[in-house]
Amino acid sequence: MGDSHPVPLRCVLFDLDGTLLDTAPDLGAAVNHVLVSEGFAPLSDAIIRQTTSNGALGLLRAGLGDELLEELGATRLRAALLDFYAAHLCVGTRPYEGMLELIEWLDERALPWGIVTNKPGFLTEPLLAALPELASCGVTV
């Protein structure tokens, strides 16, 4: 406890969605595509930003509620959302302000960095490939 020698920084791991990248615009476009296709009103940007971290079902639940989501088929609607999202993965997604400078700082110091995410690999890998400024990412978990 009284150790006056701090442990040197050896690597940095970032959460992907909502920390390193603002993915809410593209996730929002995907949920709104599904909602409008089903005849419902789109979600506002504010609601999208509040619920994006709850995943595809959380976004659909915000637009439809539990009962209607189940009645319409949660699995089907989730698949439609993810299909649209996969096809439009990096339209509005951007690194948060200051993150590219931080990555550059890490790279200049040869400090390895990586990403830890709950986003499925079939979405994570093409998203990262679409952002060449993140090419120095050493690991994705």
How are the SSEs placed, and which strands pair?
Layout: E1 12-15, E2 21-22, H1 24-37, H2 45-51, H3 55-72, H4 74-87, E3 94-95, H5 99-108, E4 113-116, H6 121-129, E5 139-140
Parallel strand pairs: 1-4, 4-5
Antiparallel strand pairs: 2-3
Question: Could you please describe the fold and organization of this structure?
Answer:
The protein is mostly helical and 141 residues long. The protein folds into two domains: 12-20 and 94-140; 24-87. The chain contains six helices and five strands. It has helices spanning 24-37, 45-51, 55-72, 74-87, 99-108, 121-129, and strands spanning 12-15, 21-22, 94-95, 113-116, 139-140. The strands form two sheets. Strands 1-4-5 form a three-stranded parallel beta sheet. Strands 2-3 form a two-stranded antiparallel sheet. Helix 1 packs across helix 4 (74-87). The chain is elongated and about 60 Å long. The protein starts with 11 loop residues before the first strand and ends with a strand.
Outline of the structure:
This protein is mainly alpha-helical.
Question: Which tags fit this structure?
Answer:
141 residues; mainly alpha; 2 domains; two-stranded antiparallel sheet; 6 helices; 5 strands; 51% helix
